[in-house]
Amino acid sequence: MSKEVKAWAATSPEKIEPLRITRRALDDEDVAIDIKFAGICHSDIHTVRSEWKKTEYPLVVGHEIAGTVSAVGKNVTKFNVGDRVGVGCMVNSCRKCENCKEGEEQYCLNMVETYNAKDPKDGTITQGGYSKYIVVDQAFVLTIPESLPLDKAAPLLCAGITVFSPLNHWHAGPGKRVGIIGLGGLGHVAVKIAKALGSEVTVFSQTASKKELALQFGADTYVTTSDPKAFDGLGRKFDIILNTVSAKVPLEKYLSSLRRDGSLIQVGVPPEPLQIPPFSLLPQRNGIHGTLIGGIAETQKMLDLCGEKQIFPEIEVVPASYINEAYDRVVKSQVKFRFVIDVSTI
Ligand SMILES: [Zn+2]
Ligand SMILES: [Zn+2]
């Protein structure tokens, strides 16, 4: 049977407020999840404010979902009632294309996002995690290891995989030098994961104010980019530079500090086009790439690594009544480092 559940929904670009929504009845492949925590991602804010594509109101956002299984469909083999589980940015895909078959469901042309997308199972618009309960196909549900607290696991489901996937794909690890631009919600997790993978890590940040934290998170080196001499002496040192900043960053100096075949990978989403002087790419066969979250198997690998190495995002747990204020603080960069909603307050 379908179920009416409590949620906090965007009723307009300006406001998120309590609303009851209906979740579909479980089909044979579905897992029902009692949500315990939901992270607040900057993408939620862009979507609520209709800044990326047209948003259908009312809409429940949230794609960093952690909770426990409360029921399973009859063909569900991966999960049992009571299991600790997570759901990230997607809830379905075609399962037939080459991207799906190769475990890169996030690049499926028919990938279904966790909110504001058409659900192929019932034709409704998908509703995200700022809610007590969700129904998701077992193929898109992740296991959260016992060693990861659910509140801290939530941000890993978007922020964590967003930085893990490029580090994994471009082979961060022992003997590799990784630069991370920005030490916010994405950047701080990137530092911890790159370090756990065995890389040498440098953080680039505009001011010196985050130096102590960066070193505490495991960074080996900290570069204050507002210093005119910041890049002097760096040479061509980096195998991978991950740009996590969603504002304009002059990329030329970063590209010129990549080794031969090194890559600059863009995960931040600034509003204006990137400016890339061609001569910063040519001399050492460097690349610039974009990347989007990660596949389901890769997301599980990231959660398992974070459980094993005890990698936790820095979070501030807030009640649902604080969501609107939290959004304002995220936009003003006044958050350290990720807000997580305590869903018991919904
Ligand atoms: Zn996100
Ligand atoms: Zn597909």
Automatic annotation (TrEMBL):
Belongs to the zinc-containing alcohol dehydrogenase family. CDD domains: CAD1. SMART domains: PKS_ER. Keywords: Metal-binding, Oxidoreductase, Zinc. This is Chaperonin 10-like protein. Its cofactor is Zn(2+). It comes from the Eukaryota. GO terms for molecular function: oxidoreductase activity, acting on the CH-OH group of donors, NAD or NADP as acceptor; zinc ion binding. Residues 11-341 form the Enoyl reductase (ER) domain. InterPro entries: ADH-like_C (IPR013149), ADH-like_N (IPR013154), ADH_Zn_CS (IPR002328), CAD-like (IPR047109), D-isomer_DH_CS1 (IPR029752), ER (IPR020843), GroES-like_sf (IPR011032), NAD(P)-bd_dom_sf (IPR036291). It comes from Lentinula detonsa.
